[in-house]
Specification:
Strand 7, helix 4 and strand 8 form a beta-alpha-beta unit. The chain is an alpha/beta fold and 498 residues long. The protein has 19 helices and 16 strands. The structure holds zinc ion. The site of zinc ion has 6 residues, from loops.
């Protein structure tokens, strides 16, 4: 029996209750697996005669009779146990190593965006990092490593995607978190040593600097390795003079020690090949070309095999909106960073807070010749909020008002220049104009950064005020959700060379 026959049969028996995701259908040893939905939920349907069928946990539906054979039909929940069984049968559902291919991360805060993300990647030669969440985001969305990864894999299954994809444990600060993510099967780890990066160097006087410097156990040894070394890159000469080298060592040495410790742990603990990203983007100051050079030379000298490096690039990188700054000036400085990366070799440059920076993607991709990674996350959530504004204006208005109340509190952890007074009064906007709020920077950022409060808030009876309704609307208007979201991510991918 071919796959189409199975879907036909299922439709004949159950078509009045369930709608199948046709592209999800997969078979193995005369067992068939596909996703369906009813008015409320999605389910995995397993049809077969074979033993495999019995392993899945779910309800037995009425058997399907065909040529004197009876096929077991099981309706299963999209839970972790059933997903593990599927991953065992279909290895393409497991995330994998990316290496130096151009790549793009699509964080998904609600856990239902993967099918839309995959639509956007269609025909593009860019490696998708479909599961990507930071420790901070997970606290705000009440999710965990396993849930984030499982949701992305269910999304892959739904679309029938069989290509490779990665899973990025983003902005990890502690070994304990690395271990948890590795246990769940993550294939990429983004180390964030920002707690160990000194930001006060410029404020200290010479005596204080000397004192600190002498406390670093091997500062003299490191100094000896780099002092007066010069590198000719893109016609420019980069030299480690005494003063700047000292400052760089003071700024980064503890952070580098932390990275080495984390890497050593992963190398021993993670059995399969993994992608490692070192992110020094969350610093108050822009990473200088010389600091970039130092960090990479030191990581290589100490044997850290990393694939991505995220720097704090010139300009103002804010959530969910275009690049703020002089694009030409950025281009000039970035081309030097790209040239450093090319001349040393072996790693990609990574752009964080990478969504909606349409004016810089072509530069980023061309200068690095595709040796680049871009991370986006909140922009997918914004598209989802936009669909709510389109489909349930009343709910959107409630969310918007709530976001206004919480903005001051929630903005603390972000670099923003949002001015709430520029946002049009929600009470004077017609329903069909609400969608325009998503073209305006201030209202984009309002919704972008308050996601945690919006998703977590509960009423007196401990019920979520918005969360369940958000999922319900996006489920009901799934086609619109997928279309808007994939179009938006596609706009990003189109500007990257691939
Ligand atoms: Zn970052």
């Amino acid at each position: 029996m071919n796959k189409q026959d199975i879907l036909h049969l299922f439709d004949k028996y159950y078509g009045d209750r369930y709608e199948a995701y046709i592209s999800s259908l997969k078979s193995e040893k005369k067992n068939y697996f596909f996703l369906v939905k009813d008015d409320h939920s999605k389910y995995l349907i397993v049809i077969g005669t074979h033993g495999i069928c019995k392993d899945f946990e779910g309800d037995n539906l009425e058997e399907i009779k065909i040529n004197n054979n009876e096929l077991i039909v099981k309706r299963c929940c999209l839970d972790h146990r059933n997903l593990n069984l599927l991953r065992g049968i279909f290895p393409h559902l497991n995330p994998s190593f990316c290496g130096l291919k151009p790549s793009f991360g699509t964080g998904d805060r609600l856990g239902i965006a993967t099918p839309a993300h995959l639509q956007a990647f269609q025909g593009k030669d860019i490696f998708p990092i479909l599961a990507q969440q930071s420790v901070r985001e997970m606290a705000r969305t009440e999710r965990n490593w396993q849930k984030v990864l499982d949701d992305a894999i269910w999304g892959c299954f739904e679309t029938g995607y069989i290509g490779p994809f990665g899973a990025d444990a983003d902005h990890v600060k502690e070994i304990k978190e690395l271990k948890e993510a590795a246990d769940c099967g993550y294939t990429m780890f983004t180390l964030d040593p920002s707690d160990f990066i000194r930001n006060d160097i410029k404020k200290l006087d010479k005596q204080e600097l000397d004192q600190l410097y002498n406390q670093i156990p091997n500062s003299k040894e490191i100094e000896g390795l780099h002092l007066s070394k010069s590198y000719k890159i893109k016609g420019q000469e980069l030299v480690f003079d005494k003063k700047s080298l000292k400052e760089i060592i003071l700024t980064y040495s503890e952070a580098l020690n932390h990275v080495v410790k984390c890497y050593e742990f992963l190398k021993d603990y993670k059995k399969e090949k993994f992608d490692l990203e070192i992110s020094v983007d969350e610093t108050p100051t822009v990473t200088s070309p010389l600091a970039h050079l130092f960090v990479v030379l030191e990581l290589q000298r100490r044997g850290v095999d990393f694939q991505n490096l995220a720097l704090h690039f010139l300009g103002d990188w804010q959530k969910g909106i275009e690049y703020i700054g002089d694009v030409e000036q950025f281009s000039g400085e970035f081309s030097l960073h790209a040239a450093i990366a090319r001349s040393i070799g072996g790693y990609k440059l990574s752009l964080h807070t990478g969504s909606d920076k349409f004016s810089v993607y072509p530069i980023f991709s061309q200068e690095t010749d595709g040796l680049c990674h871009i991370k986006t996350a909140g922009t997918s959530w914004l598209e989802e909020a936009k669909v709510i504004a389109m489909k349930d204006p009343a709910l959107y208005r409630e969310i918007h008002r709530f976001a206004l109340e919480n903005f001051e509190k929630d903005r603390a952890s972000y670099n923003l220049t949002t001015d709430l007074s520029r946002i049009p009064d929600i009470d004077t906007i017609a329903d069909d104009e609400l969608v325009n709020l998503f073209n305006q920077n201030d209202s984009r950022q309002l919704i972008h950064i308050t996601y945690g409060s919006i998703l977590r808030v509960k009423d007196n009876e401990e019920k979520y005020i918005f969360k369940d309704r958000i999922y319900k609307i996006l489920f009901k208007y799934e086609e619109d959700h997928y279309r808007e979201l994939s179009n938006h991510i596609r706009r990003h991918l189109e500007l990257l060379k691939a």
